[in-house]
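pls design
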């Protein structure tokens, strides 16, 4: 099971992990696609870690396909997110401070389907997001995507 440890400053307890997430809106930009994680039951954006030999946009597109069955195209970088107070701890004992690049992406093909990483996938109205508990800062990533800023920023 994956859990998130919140603290003052994590310090040298974990390693750094570069990850990517995708904010995918419906055509009307009134709903956003979320997945429910199989390991801890939390809702989140499709996301995952960068593998050796791939670009960050390839990571984003691969993770969406693996977790949802949808083929997407990355449109723009929303932001770079890093919080030294969050540590992701995995069932295998590894723990990581996540540095995440969040991208807006659009669906180009495919059918929504579950994977071994997801137990549910659906589009949620943006009005529902405000009251949901999402993994890490995924709610903020969605809100930042809605602003449509032209430049990325660091949190």
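designed seq:
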């Amino acid at each position: 099971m994956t859990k998130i440890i919140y603290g003052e400053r994590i310090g040298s307890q974990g390693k750094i992990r570069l990850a990517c997430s995708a904010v995918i809106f419906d055509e009307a930009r009134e709903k956003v696609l979320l997945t429910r994680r199989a390991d801890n039951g939390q809702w989140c954006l499709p996301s995952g870690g960068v593998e050796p030999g791939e670009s960050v946009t390839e990571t984003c597109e691969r993770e969406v396909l693996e977790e949802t069955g949808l083929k997407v195209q990355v449109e723009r970088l929303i932001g770079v997110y890093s919080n030294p107070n969050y540590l992701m701890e995995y069932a295998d004992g590894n723990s990581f401070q996540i540095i995440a690049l969040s991208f807006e992406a659009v669906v180009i093909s495919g059918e929504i389907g579950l994977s071994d990483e997801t137990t549910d996938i659906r589009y949620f109205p943006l009005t529902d997001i405000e009251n949901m508990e999402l993994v890490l800062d995924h709610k903020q990533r969605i809100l930042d995507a809605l602003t449509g800023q032209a430049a990325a920023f660091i949190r």
